Amino acid sequence: MTDPAESSEPLRGLTAFLDWLVRIPKWLRTLVPITGMLVLWWSSSQVPDDEPHSTVGSLLHNSMHVVAYACIAASLWVAWSCRPVAAVCVFRSRGAWLLASLYGAVDELHQAYVPGRVCSFADLVSDASGAALAVVVLRGVSGVAPSWRRIAGVLFAASLASVAAATFANW
Question: What letter does residue 2 receive in the DSSP assignment?
Answer without folding.
Answer: -
